[in-house]
């Protein structure tokens, strides 16, 4: 079984795109298990990850594709939390969303994405926002 950590923030479009990338993996419905991961930077209300809209959207998309999954959560620095969860869950790969950058910033990823890419001891896949019809 190929185990993926899918890091989800609050952006629905970015989260959907990365979930679609996982769902497009060969034999995803029979050979892939996904740990949907959300890190709260600030959570004074004590919400759970399953209350975050993008997490629910990703979970529904994966379930419709027949992909087994679980939801994990943490609080603190997102990059550190993603890497820690990847180690604890012993995942095969990390999937996370990228952001559209300005022309000057295209050479750099966002700070969380860049930190994960540079520090991960496993493959990292980055996907952008959902394509829109033109």
UniProtKB/TrEMBL annotation:
Against InterPro entries, the record matches this protein to:
Rossmann-like_a/b/a_fold (IPR014729), Universal_stress_UspA (IPR006015), UspA (IPR006016)
Q: Locate the UspA domain: which residues?
A: 3-126
Which intervals of the chain form a coiled coil? none
A Pfam family for this UniProt protein?
Usp
Record-stated family: Belongs to the universal stress protein A family.
Q: What is this protein called?
A: Nucleotide-binding universal stress protein, UspA family
